[in-house]
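Supplementary Note 3. Input sequence used for the single-chain structure prediction.
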Amino acid sequence: MPLRFTTAGESHGPALTAVLEGLPAGLELRPEDIDRDLARRQLGHGRGGRMKIESDRAEVTSGVRHGRTLGSPVAMRVANRDYANWEERMNPWPVEAEVAEVHLPRPGHADLAGVQKYGFADVRNVLERASARETAARVAAGALARVYLRAMGVAVYSHVTRIGSIAAPALNGALRPADFAAVDESPVRCIDSESSAAMVEEINRARKANESLGGVYEVRAYGLVPGLGSYVSWEDRLDGRLAQAIMSIQAMKGVGVGEGFELASLPGSHAHDEIFWSDDRGFYRETNHAGGLEGGMTTGDPLVVSGAMKPLPTLTKPLRSVDIATKEPAQALRERTDSCTVPAAAVVGEAMVALVLAAAYREKFGGDHVDDAVAALRAYRERSGWKQD
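The predicted structure, written as discrete structure tokens, is reproduced below.
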């Protein structure tokens, strides 16, 4: 069965819902497997007032019994605690109170195109679903995918490499899983401590200037077997699936695989990863410019995917816009907002990469029970001769 997921819910509605279908039976789950990632999504210097209200927890309502998956769809509910303050404005049913409409679309948001597309008169009908609050449901689904990947020997991590004008130096040598052990202790989830401090100051300056900041994060996956994905058709190429997954996250404007756009400026002799063989390692590469993907397939090297996030469009000093009701010039909508959410976006990026990789493993190794999938993986490793570093 293919692995697929969907989310539902609005930013200030009663709750968010995630449904993940295609996990094998027998996966052992704990509440903290999901809630830990939901809490990590709320981390980061530059978050706004809503993070003081929400403390996300997932309520599993189907697909799990006594801590193990059943092979049926897993449904999860993440309550919006702030709904208590929005019940009249976001009630699913008609209310007696007069609820003011929002007519001020924000530049850089889905607001204007959304009301044009669906014929709405109220921007709130668009902005509530377009909000990045939806990513809490994605992270819940991604946490389940990570549990499955863990059973298959795969781990997924992320770190921030740039916020605004501050970029962390390129780290010498290959990052290992141990290098991510303390990344969540950084207020901006940056591995380099000096860059972390500079990024915090950059966010502080932007906040005082009524500005928001974007940045770049990197997601890495370890333990992948070679041959996930395929070269035989465009929709099976794993790099294409990963790019779509990252770009589907709100406010993303760029994606890179491996060294990404930097490879465009290099000659071929410096851009590709030479291949070697030894009895103890089998086939291996000494470099990983390609980020663990060649020809739409994993190579067995660490997967490296980066996402570039634009500054958030909701500003404390709003940009110029137009009132969609009167067509008169006006300032864009101003609501509670964050000044920087790149650290949180990196956690969402982890979830999306995990979901794509879990789907690729399910397609390749199948299995109604997780033990079937692990046995199929073991047979493939023996047949392919892949030796993990």
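The longest helix spans residues 342-365. The chain has one domain: 4-384.
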